[in-house]
Design goal:
The chain contains six helices and no strands. It starts with a helix and ends with a helix.
């Protein structure tokens, strides 16, 4: 269920961003254009923030336990040391080790904040009363959208 919610969340975020920013990336999948949708329903601007919150809720919940900052930092440190070795083949192992550690720690420090922020948002939105409220409001808006757009 979490895996399906992850992909549905990504889809919801893409659709909401496409309509909000008038990118028309999904114009081939939809008969009315986004400008027509917004003109036909002035309340669409209230639906879009809810769609974004719902998408973030579905997207953030499954990846909450993955420590992707560590994986990206490790990869970045390895790539920094590798490319430095390619550019300067005479460097010693000690210098490459220091470059690896510095790059890994710098990247990890930057990404850990983002990871904590996503975890916090996922935790807050997954709190049962909030999740139920978001779900009920989403169902309400879904029914309104279905009845207004045949």
């Amino acid at each position: 269920m979490s895996a399906a919610g992850f992909f549905v969340g990504i889809g919801i975020i893409i659709v909401a961003a496409d309509i909000t920013l008038s990118l028309n990336l999904l114009a081939s999948f939809s008969s009315p254009s986004t400008a027509d949708l917004v003109a036909a329903d002035p309340y669409l601007r209230f639906y879009l923030p809810l769609m974004l919150v719902l998408g973030v809720l579905l997207f953030a919940r499954p990846i909450r336990n993955i420590r992707w900052a560590s994986l990206v930092a490790l990869t970045g440190g390895l790539l920094a040391a590798y490319y430095l070795r390619v550019l300067f083949p005479t460097l010693t192992t000690l210098i490459l080790g220091v470059v690896f550690i510095v790059a890994t720690v710098a990247i990890y420090t930057l990404l850990r904040f983002v990871e904590d922020l996503v975890e916090f948002i996922g935790t807050v939105l997954a709190f049962p009363p909030i999740a139920v409220g978001i779900g009920l409001v989403s169902l309400y808006f879904g029914i309104i959208i279905i009845t207004r757009f045949p």
